[in-house]
Write a structure and sequence with these properties.
The complex is a heterodimer of chains A (502) and B (334). Chain A has 3 domains: 237 residues, Rossmann fold, CATH 3.40.50; 171 residues, 3-Layer(aba) Sandwich (Rossmann fold); 76 residues, no CATH class. Chain A has 17 helices and 24 strands. In chain A, the strands form 6 sheets. A 6-stranded mixed beta sheet of chain A has the order 6-9-10-3-11-12, with helices on both faces. A 6-stranded mixed beta sheet of chain A has the order 18-21-22-15-23-24, sandwiched between helices. In chain A, β16 and β17 form a beta hairpin. In chain A, α4 packs across α5. The two termini of chain A are 39 Å apart. The model of chain A has no long low-confidence stretch (mean pLDDT 88). Chain B is an all-alpha fold and 334 residues long. In chain B, 73% of the residues lie in helices and 1% in strands. Chain B has a two-stranded antiparallel ribbon with strand order 1-2. In chain B, a hairpin with a 2-residue loop joins β1 and β2. Chain B is globular, with a radius of gyration of 21 Å. The two termini of chain B are 16 Å apart. Classes of the chains: A alpha/beta (502), B mainly alpha (334). At the A-B interface, α10 and β20 of A face α10 and α11 of B.
Amino acid sequence: MAEYKLELKNVSKSFPGVKALDHVNLAVRPGTVHALMGENGAGKSTLMKCLFGIYHMDEGEIYLDGEKVTISNPDDAMKKGVAMVHQELQPVLARNIAENMYLGRFPVHKYGPLQVIDHKTMFEETEKWLKELGLDYNPKALLSSLSIGQMQMVEIAKAVSHEAKVIIFDEPTSSLSDKEVDFLFKVMNDLRDRGVSMIYISHKMDEIKRISDDITIMRDGTYIGTWRAAEMSTEDIITKMVGRELTQIYPDHDHEIGDVVLEAEHVTSILPKSFKDCTFNVRKGEILGFGGLVGAQRTELMEGIFGIRHLAEGTVKVDGKEVKIKRPKDAMDAGIGMITEDRRGNGIFGCLSIKDNVGISIYNKHLEAGFVLNHPEINHIVDDSIKQLSIKTPSMQQHIENLSGGNQQKVIVARWLANDPEILIMDEPTRGIDIGAKHEIYEIMETLARQGKAIIMISSEMPELLGMADRVYVMCNGKITGEITDKEDMTQEKVMTFATQF
Amino acid sequence: MQKTQKQKVTDFLINNGVIIVMIILVIYTGLTTKNFLTPNNFLNLLANMSYRLVIALGISGCVITGGCDLSGGRMVGFGACLAGTLLQKQDYSGRFFKDGFMASITPMNPFVVLLLVMLICACFGAITGWFIAYLSVPPFISTLAMMEIIYGIGLIYTGATPLGGYITGYTIFSTGRFLGLSWLIWMAVGMSAITWFIYNMTRHGKYMYAIGGNVQAAEVAGVPVKITLLIIYAKASAFFAMAGFMLGAKAGGASINTGLSYEMEGIAACALGGVSVTGGRGKVSSAIVGVAVLELLKVALQFLGVDANAQYIAIGIVIFVAISLDIRKYVQKK
């Protein structure tokens, strides 16, 4: 028997403009849980997607049981014994458990050219596999009737039914309750006893310590090392994950911080698993950072403040006066703007021109006779912002979908500059854009702060958070777990400690 | 990116495929048949296009926001009947309002009737729009529901009897000429101009494109999505009412089945002209081109002696081919 069940050697993968993986190694011993750790953007998911055949690696080799294999797509991966339990489950909600488990490989009766689905075998097999994992679900139950945790169990049962040798768990616990996590770990322990190797991606330190045998740490797409879990303390892990220098791409801080302009008190979502009891404030001319791990509900909290989501409790005050925000329009009327994280989803209008993308939030301010758009005035504003933000485009009539990500982001920034809010929320303002555009966005933030605007920045990139923010709140699991007011005190370790509280 | 000469030609053909096919068809028909390229034939064509264009313009707003309006045809019929009952000659034997109060006030001024009919239909359109915008009922379903409702109302109102005997003040909309073109054509021109103005010069138009382009982004950018949608559906119904009024004037009569399934022609015309059925794209010129293509095709086929029943097949094929070509513009590069 080979020493390692699975070995990835020298895996590299580039995306346009970014080297996502740079000669990464991973070796998983038989019958172990191997934790794969790193900050957001360290390349963990990319590595797993290469292994699972979703991405094609530029170079590198995969060995299964000591034999070199190539994996060309997820189907191929499953046939070779590699299964993946995705972070975002994608079940067919309207169909039952058995159909979900056997989707794409239904057992059939063959009657000449006619193939009829063999429901009896399918349900029996499903029941058998569910029993193996100690689950007493009805194979005929619709997926939509299950909880997220139960769906995940079905997904695991599916992986087991493929007789998988290696199962990848990509942040499986991010939406599970404590009880469900306990059950997941019980199932994982059973699988380990049966010799199945598992790769476990998670940010939660206590879970890593509980379940994993080995730990591999990645940082910025590179391989840092592999250790026995028992030999590593939580502090060791954090230091290895974040250990890097801040680069000088942040502008000098030269803005004066004034009075409190926005206060949120005990803000709670209407959803049970979202943000709860969050209290914070931001001052004029301040860049306020919100740190935390992906899934800490920072985006949801800010979308709640901006009226994209609904609040069950809590008050929002602007300039000391309470404002009722039911939809984004109300927030805008109160002087709040928001650049959302999901640029494609709720930021840009892909099929419209740059002009319309910038103009949309100011069309009601530039009217003649109360209803006719003042095109010359709007053109002037759009033209100015294209120049000011150096948006690279032949004309303002260009469709925004033809621009690069960084330029699209600058168009969205231009939209809000034109709208001129007193408080600007920027959710992951530099996600997916190149370093030059990042620098320009930072410059804009600094300029706005000097003009006395309040900026709230959500960032999952630690250097950015620490480099730009005057003050930082850290969230974990929907709660604000810490506030760091002293610039001296702002360290990656400190943020990570607050961010991994539960 | 440098494009080769060949690519440029291909691009041009794809981008203007519909129009090119049309021009070829017109030239071919003109050369091979008599009387096709005559002023009279074209005046006739324009008159037939006029109310279809008004329908297509109305429906274009719904399509640009990613919806549709299936109640269009029935709304046209209802509008035509409503206008018809108010504009019959007093001495017409089959008069709808024989006695009572309504008989004493009809016929009314045709312009007043036009506005009244548009207003009434706009109210029904607003109801459809309200369900779409505020209760999130998909446009396909809510306009389907309104289609049934408005048909029922029309049946009850008219008692399913056809209308006729219109005053000349009404039929003159079809017979009257201004600068050589009938009033119907001028109405279509006017509605095109108004629609162009709304789409390009008002914030309502910009909001409409934004909703069609990305409704979540529109919400986040502070666009009043709900009221904009409601207005779009109300406006569409007002347009349908006007088309019904025009159709009644042209035919000199109306029944509850007037305009039946014209909404489908309207949607087809929009799609042919380049209004994206997934939303966000489309201009007034798209509706005009689409309606022109469909009507020219019908007339050309008629002149070429194609069996009237077979024309439906030809139209279907043209829609298939034209949309497949047109959609290349957007699906190509991935």
